[in-house]
């Protein structure tokens, strides 16, 4: 089980931070400069895992369906959890 405080977790990369604060403008800018939404941090979390932890439903679909670089929804983190499985474990029903 992840050992982080999801209310203070912003990921380890600028793209995860932009997603965690629900800022699509910064997210798009970072993507245009080559940011990868599927890059994982030390927990094995990629941008969708961070979005789930921060309960940012608006940007979840945006990242998943991004026209330039969509995030992959079936990647597992170091705990074997996909973003949706992480939502279940953390009790983040807002994602559903």
TrEMBL record:
This is Uncharacterized protein. InterPro entries: Ankyrin_rpt, Ankyrin_rpt-contain_sf, TRPV. It is a multi-pass membrane protein. Its main location: membrane. It comes from Medioppia subpectinata. GO terms for molecular function: calcium channel activity. It is found in: Cell membrane; Target cell membrane. Transmembrane segments: none annotated. One of its GO terms (biological process) is calcium ion import across plasma membrane. ANK repeats lie at residues 10-42. Keywords: ANK repeat, Calcium, Calcium channel, Calcium transport, Cell membrane, Exocytosis, Ion channel, Ion transport, Membrane, Neurotoxin, Presynaptic neurotoxin, Repeat, Target cell membrane, Target membrane, Toxin, Transport. Pfam families: Ank_2 (PF12796). GO terms for cellular component: host cell presynaptic membrane; other organism cell membrane; plasma membrane.
């Amino acid at each position: 089980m992840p050992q982080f405080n999801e209310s203070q977790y912003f990921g380890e990369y600028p793209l995860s931070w932009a997603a965690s604060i629900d800022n699509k403008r910064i997210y798009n800018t970072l993507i245009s400069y080559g940011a990868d939404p599927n890059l994982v941090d030390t927990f094995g979390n990629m941008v969708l895992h961070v979005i789930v932890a921060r309960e940012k439903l608006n940007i979840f679909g945006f990242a998943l369906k991004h026209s330039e670089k969509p995030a992959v929804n079936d990647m597992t983190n170091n705990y074997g959890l996909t973003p949706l499985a992480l939502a279940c474990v953390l009790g983040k029903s807002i994602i559903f």
